[in-house]
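Form 7-S
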Amino acid sequence: MSRENKGRKRKTDIAMTAATKRAQEVRKRMAHLEQLALEADEHKMSYGKYVEKLKREGKYDV
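Output:
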């Protein structure tokens, strides 16, 4: 690493950090959707109908 770049992050490092953060957010969102799907199954409803029911009751959080 040359002296002029010392202490600076490379663009690839920044992009990799952003990609990692997006991947974590996607995993978290998918876990939430999977939980909603399981709850819908417990109530013997389709996912869409269950989400509509939660929205009507004001319990749906995105």
